[in-house]
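User: Let's play a game. I give you a shape written as tokens, and you guess the letters that built it. Ready? Here's round one.
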């Protein structure tokens, strides 16, 4: 599954030979070339039908060509007049969410063709959206690209596999989900395994794989602060073995994103799964480059799905998961804290993980079973925070554009003093919205995120998936 949206484009032309030759070919052909050039400059994988489709046979051939390339969304380019029934025929044959792309030139008759096709699609309740714009790069970036991304994600979700290890964690009801609702609304399937599978495979993990992981941390992290009691080398080795076991299970079962219960069985009696949270959604580990697999702690299914959507939106970037631990109203700061690990990418936002590890101290966990945590404050930069949550069984999404900032020393000192010795990795998110509204509306104790800003894309995704959006900005 590729990270970029795979977009198919068909330009439709008038099927009448006389009008095509005398009028519309002279307008359509250069506008087709302009649309292809502009769409090709967008960060998508563009597949364009070989010829302008005018007749039913040409339309069928164009659709079959795009279907063979497994495109995820269709752009039906209607630069001039074309018979609406033939456009609808091609769109139905394609069977994908469709963007009808028209233009604002009064001399093309394109508005008539666009509205004719759109009106017919509306009568049969076919999912589509109309975009009328000029042939300018900025217009394609602002109007076309967000919808391409959203429609691509809707298609990618279909057939995706969620891996759930364990069940509800320490009474967190907001982590629960309905797998059949997901199957119906999003097309997502679930593989549900017991956490003991992680432990079973970890106990069989070859020593050389564990040694490679541990030595990588010891070489590149700011420090690995072993103790004689709870954070021994043996405990750290078993945490890394659990990570490797989870990575192997994901491959074995074809999982796309996961959630792990962890507390309290694993965190109390074996080891907390903090190294899995630190590495699984990263783009590499000691064994080399790998895919980024979003992971939520405490069996939080909606938190994992939110991360998966953000991963797909961002082109596969590492995702972020934490508690909404504290809201500092006077400083407009939200403290996003994880109970033992945040993805190592956020320590430095560097494409080279070794550079990010330089900012991380591996410290002793306070959990009964011991082990280590990744301790750091997330590096500054733009963040897209978000969260799927439900009210009366209906999904909503909180959309929170923000900026990760370094806290002032006074803020940090006060936070450390208030929390005592239980210091954890934290992202300090600068926010600008009604915090009382947020507290009364937001439907979870967890939050997810990714670097960048995808507000417009998330709004389109919510529209496509039947989710009510709540934007906090």
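Assistant: Ready! My guess for every position:
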């Amino acid at each position: 599954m590729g990270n970029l949206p795979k977009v198919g484009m068909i330009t439709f032309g008038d099927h009448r030979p006389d009008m095509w030759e005398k009028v519309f070919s002279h307008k359509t052909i250069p506008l087709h070339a302009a649309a292809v050039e502009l769409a090709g400059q967008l960060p998508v994988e563009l597949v364009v039908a070989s010829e302008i489709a005018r007749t039913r046979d040409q339309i069928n051939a164009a659709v079959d060509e795009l279907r063979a390339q497994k495109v995820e969304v269709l752009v039906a380019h209607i630069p001039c007049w074309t018979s609406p029934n033939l456009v609808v025929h091609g769109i139905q044959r394609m069977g994908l969410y469709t963007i009808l792309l028209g233009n604002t030139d009064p001399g093309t008759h394109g508005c008539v063709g666009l509205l004719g096709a759109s009106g017919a699609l509306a009568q049969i309740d076919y999912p589509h959206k109309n975009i009328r714009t000029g042939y300018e790069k900025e217009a394609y970036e602002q109007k076309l690209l967000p919808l391409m991304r959203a429609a691509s994600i809707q298609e990618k979700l279909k057939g995706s596999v969620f891996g759930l290890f364990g069940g509800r964690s320490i009474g967190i009801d907001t982590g629960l989900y309905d797998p059949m609702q997901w199957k119906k609304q999003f097309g997502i399937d679930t593989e549900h395994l017991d956490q003991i599978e992680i432990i079973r495979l970890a106990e069989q993990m070859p020593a050389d794989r564990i040694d490679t992981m541990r030595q990588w941390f010891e070489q590149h992290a700011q420090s690995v602060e072993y103790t004689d009691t709870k954070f021994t080398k043996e405990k750290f080795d078993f945490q890394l073995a659990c990570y490797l076991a989870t990575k192997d299970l994901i491959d074995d079962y074809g999982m796309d994103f996961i959630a792990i219960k962890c507390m309290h069985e694993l965190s109390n009696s074996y080891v907390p799964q903090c190294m899995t949270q630190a590495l699984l959604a990263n783009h590499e580990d000691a064994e080399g480059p790998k895919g980024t697999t979003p992971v939520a702690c405490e069996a939080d299914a909606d938190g994992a799905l939110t991360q998966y959507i953000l991963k797909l939106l961002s082109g596969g970037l590492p995702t972020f998961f934490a508690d909404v631990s504290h809201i500092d109203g006077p400083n407009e700061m939200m403290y996003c804290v994880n109970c033992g690990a945040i993805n190592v990418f956020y320590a430095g936002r560097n494409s080279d993980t070794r550079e990010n590890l330089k900012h991380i101290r591996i410290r002793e966990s306070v959990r009964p079973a011991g082990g280590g945590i990744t301790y750091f404050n997330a590096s500054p930069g733009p963040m897209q925070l978000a969260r799927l949550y439900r009210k009366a069984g209906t999904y909503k999404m909180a959309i929170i554009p923000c900026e990760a900032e370094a806290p002032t020393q006074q803020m940090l000192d006060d936070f450390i003093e208030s929390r005592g010795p239980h210091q954890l990795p934290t992202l300090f998110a600068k926010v600008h919205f009604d915090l009382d509204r947020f507290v009364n509306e937001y439907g979870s104790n967890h939050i997810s995120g990714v670097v960048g800003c995808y507000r417009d894309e998330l709004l389109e995704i919510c529209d496509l998936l039947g989710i009510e959006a709540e934007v906090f900005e």
